[in-house]
Amino acid sequence: MAKRVVLAYSGGLDTSVAVRWLIDNMGVEVIALAADVGQGGDFEAVRARALAAGAVEALVADVRDEFARDYCVPALRANALYEGRYPLVSALSRPLIVKHLVAAARLHGADAVGHGCTGKGNDQVRFEVSTRALAPDLEVLAPVRVWGMTRADSIMYAYDHGIPITATKEKVYSIDDNLWGRAIECGEMEDPWAMPPPGVWSTTVVTETEPRDLIIGFEEGVPVAVDGERLDLVELVDRVGRTVGAYGWGRIDMVENRRVGIKSRETYECPASLALILAHSDLESVTLERDLAREKARLEPRYAELVYDGLWFSPLKQALDAFVAESQRFVTGEVRVHLEPGSARVTGRRSEHSLYDDGLATYEAADSFRHQDSAGFVRLWGLGIETWSARQGPGALNR
């Protein structure tokens, strides 16, 4: 039986109630750990709320740089989009949070970690599988999964126990923010036919109407500059997000397949991550050899599935990371993204390592392609089909 637990703490209703519920119902000491992954907010207020709920300690870990460098960048280099659309906003932050939960548990002598996930979501899988990968000796507590309270019940529990919360019965949306994007679900959007109300959008509201170009520079697949200005990763992602989002681009409305076996209607705002993946994948079109590009494209969906399914810390994920890293050695250059209201599209790319050869591609006088070689190549390429046709196919019927 656990005696001390480090709880992943957001400062919201569920985790605030979880602090007191764990104390009252499981007799444990609770250390609350809030991780700053770029969601913004007043973390001093978050700490105060955890302590008011009964936590013996409230920690805040600023992991924005680590999140950008060690989690967002690998996903970007892999062009990781779950089911071809979702850039893994929440899924990327969970293994990082677990890493710090485990570290805090070791530092403070805890024998368990905890989370505030429900029993039908993906995050419970990510928190618990990651914990078992990094620290299989630690117990994992999931109070929300077992306490059987509705949202209204949780609000009343908070009031009854003097827990300071901002939640109301009318606030029906579940929102998760980080540097890589914003996830919004629940409320009327649980109906897949219902149109998302305008008020749910925050980072993709149109405030710019004049078309402009955004030039993103990469070195070995890592974004390093915007419009020629070198920026650290956190600042770069933030700037790209603010610039692209101001044109109302970067929204996703999809029904996705959760790991627990249900379909869920999800909406996301991801102007930065989608724009960076758009630019990065385009730069690869001129810097990756054909077979490498095709094999990478085949593996990218699998990479995204592993991250989505909570297998960040797994042998296959590590092996794919090694493959992706090797593939990025020459993905250096610039991509021009043209922005208009509701639109972001690539209009140019250049690289000192480009495999695009003007002399081979042009039809003008500078053409250096050996046209005379094509006749023999085409004949050999089609020889198998020609033989089949003559013996078994349409050609055989004409003999």
Give me some keywords for this one.
15 helices, five-stranded parallel β-sheet, 43% helix, five-stranded antiparallel β-sheet, alpha/beta, Argininosuccinate synthetase, chain A, domain 2, Rossmann fold
Structure description:
It is built from 15 helices and 14 strands. Helix 1 (13-26) crosses helix 7, helix 4 (89-108) crosses helix 5 (123-134) and helix 10 (290-308) packs antiparallel against helix 11. It has helices at residues 13-26, 43-53, 64-77, 89-108, 123-134, 143-147, 151-160, 233-245, 271-287, 290-308, 315-327, 358-361, 374-381, 383-391, 394-397; strands at residues 4-8, 29-36, 57-62, 112-114, 139-141, 174-178, 181-185, 212-219, 222-226, 229-230, 251-257, 263-269, 333-340, 343-350. The protein starts with a strand and ends with a helix. Strand 9 (222-226) and strand 10 (229-230) form a beta hairpin. With 399 residues, it is of the alpha/beta class. It folds into three domains: 4-73 and 80-172, HUPs (Rossmann fold, 3-Layer(aba) Sandwich); 175-350, Argininosuccinate synthetase, chain A, domain 2, CATH 3.90.1260; 365-397. It has a five-stranded parallel sheet, sandwiched between helices. It has a five-stranded antiparallel sheet with strand order 10-9-8-13-14. A four-stranded antiparallel sheet has the order 6-7-12-11.
